Amino acid sequence: MTDERTDDVRRGDGRAGDVRAGDVPAGDVPAGDERKGDVPAGEVRAGDVREGDEWVGDERARDVRKRDERTSDERAGHLRKGDVRKGRVVRGTLSPGSIAASALALGDQEGPEAMTARRIAAYVGCDPMTLYRHFANLVALLDAVADLAVGGVVLPDDRAPWVVRLRETLANSREVALAHPGIAPHIASRPPLGPHGQQIGRILLGALRDAGLSDEDTVATSQVLIAYLSSSLAMAVATQGQRDDRWTEAAHALRSIGQNSTEQMPAAGSIEQFTLGLDLLVDGLRMRTNTAHLPSAP
Question: Could you read off the pLDDT of 247-287 as tens digits, one per residue?
Fold first, then answer.
């Protein structure tokens, strides 16, 4: 009978537990060594990873690669279906600013329906609960996104006449908000109160004070102007400034009561309607400030 052991095993040089190809004849497994899930020599189970020169049976990639926190998709240079690579933030660099910027970009691409914690988190590349380490709730996150959006508003020179400052601030705010369709509805319902929103408010308040309004009237009038801007935004978001079925119904109703000049009626939410309304507001302010110094009627 021949000695089928290897030279290393006969000399006692084989390490305990080492198994080399050919050490055990095919089909010969020592008693008690049969374990559920063993695979033939040369085959590796899914998820096994190589550590040095040996396959470690039950180690998973996350254990050996614990220092590499990227996903396999990111290492491969591609993303899963539905992910948007542009919005992903490098792990460890998340901040309120980076999250808000990514959410703004997502809304620009996919609209207001994408402004959910789950969609934003997927775009950023984190778990939804991670967002709440940086924001108290979803509303707070959207407030930050709204304020970031209006940071693009071009503000007039403080030395310009009050009418110019008023018109340009409101018109430019409307234009910028509508350029970000994902967050425009939120801006309409909750005018931003962050740093950029405060800067817009400062310009408006300064223009109204320079128009000659008292401090009380300045604050009250600024609220009216913001409400007008918000409502015009809401209508623009709803109709895209186009003549829709509701416009047709309104035109028909006006003709039925004797008003036939409906073809010139601007569409709800259109720039024409906004400009007309702003003209009326400015004219009213001019009249109020021009007569403010006169004695009240008995």
Answer: 788 888 888 888 777 777 888 889 999 999 999 999 999 99
d(CA 121, CA 130): 8
> Tens digits of per-residue pLDDT, 172-200?
999 999 999 999 999 999 999 999 999 99
> Which of the four CATH numbers 3.40.50.2300, 3.40.50.300, 1.10.10.10, 1.10.357.10 does domain 153-283 have?
1.10.357.10
Q: What angle do CA 217, 158, 207 make, to 5 degrees?
A: 15
Query: Under CATH, which architecture does the 72-135 domain have?
Result: Orthogonal Bundle (1.10)
Tens digits of residue pLDDT in 119-148: 999 999 999 999 999 999 999 999 999 999
Q: Where are the domains of the chain?
A: 72-135, 153-283
Q: Do domains 72-135 and 153-283 have the same CATH topology?
A: no
Q: State which amino acid sits at residue 213.
A: L
Contact indicator for 274, 232 with CB cutoff of 8 Å:
yes
Q: Are 122 and 82 in contact (CB under 8 A)?
A: yes
Residue 179 contacts by C-beta under 8 Å, 6 or more apart in sequence? 152
